[in-house]
Amino acid sequence: MDSDKLREEGKKMIDFVADYWDGIRERKPLPAIKPGYINELVPAQAPSSPEDWSKIFDDLENVVVNGATHWHHPHFFAYFPTALSYQSIMADILSGGIAGIGFTWKSCPSMTELEMSSLDWVVDLMGLPEHFKNSHDGPGCGIIQSTASDSTMIAIMAARASHVERIKAEPTFMKWVSETGAGKTLKGIFDRVKTNKIDDEASGIITPYFHDPTVFEKFVMYCSDQAHSSVEKGAMLSAVRLRKLKATRGFLGNYSVSKETLQNAIKEDRARGYIPFMFLATVGTTCSCGVDQVDELGPICVEEGLYLHVDAAYAGTFALCDEFKYLIRGMEHVDSYNFNLHKAGMVNFDCSPMWFKNGTHISRYFNVDALYLAHEYQSTASDYRHLQVALGRRFRSLKIWFVLRNMGADKIREYLRRTEVLAAEFSKLILENGKFEHFVPQHLGLTCFRLKNSTNADNEKLCNTVNDDRRIHLVPSTVQGTYFLRMVVCSQLTTLDDVIYARDVIYEIADRLF
Length: 514
Known about the structure:
Oligomer: single chain
Number of domains: 4
CATH class of the largest domain: Alpha Beta
CATH architecture of the largest domain: 3-Layer(aba) Sandwich
Largest sheet: 7 strands, mixed
Strand content: 5-15%
């Protein structure tokens, strides 16, 4: 394929995508396939000579589209949404076309600087603290991570390293190093440290200074028992203890961690000889869209010396609207904050902004300077590789830049408000026949409901039958042993008629089963 062929076939691909969107209502949200379906459509061996592009294009429907779950179908009500816009698609085309890898400023200056500027736009639009801005005089900064899971992992490692550094700076630690034989190696490391690692020339072993396992052996972090599964994975991979705090019904009638619960946990764990170092708050839990009140929990973290990270993956985007500003109360106490524009912000996956109160300090914990990455501007320019696990990165900021310029923030706000209105309508509709009840009050685009006077098995049977029917798609969840169904307004194509249709399908199947 040459540039002329790219122009010809590229136009066909754009038409294919546009036609897919125009005709998505004619499909069902879930495909009628079983695992391994691809084996009948794709040869076991790769071709040794090139195939004509037209043949590949002809396979798209059977191999790809017919085997896809259609996340943007107006009857897709599962998980949380994944955002999309034509402007974002255009940005991904340009990003793929440039094909740059922006690990340092010099490796792609426009990638770095447009990311810095576009994230400053988002700070202003959402009303986040000024110190999060890349253009602010202080040490704060913003970066686009791939996912909220990545951001959680980064936050845990940053919090862990920061607390290791704090402990090693305390006189009691130095006294222990001096007096115990076990501490001799650490004393040598401490005395000689100039960067974030020490090379043992004799053994070739590199000892991480900020990530020293001999120090964080007793570390414990906290999160709600409603926090996302990525928190548990992040703690596991970071080799720190995780204590899940029992959420109780409180703010908005939903499940969240109370300040008393956090205070008691810290007190108990210190009495046991553990070292609390972090609390991870969730704003918009996956199970029920509950909100940990950062304005109440933040001061406790500051007083107790805990790093505070906020995961607002789904709910965060709603703070673009004035009526949802309660979602960002207490941000002045936060060390790092993350949400997914690619969930409700009309920006395609992947685009997960993350901000640090002190990014300059945090960047030292991820700094591994190889000579081949050095450049003459590294003392004055930003190198985003120091705030992520991976080295390479895509030109994600193009999506924010295109969407905000060509769509405008007001259009995104309109979509968010319409999402909430449709969810509120469904929350009323599902109660009309008297068979169902809310598990928690509807919040943002999510309604949690279950059969009245029912068992978990009853609700599981209903959910499985609804999904086997394939006219709509829902997923369930459980909170502290109670099973319920989740209905989330996801697609920008969803209308009130679609919400009524979902209610009717659920009623029909429930009447048939019970």
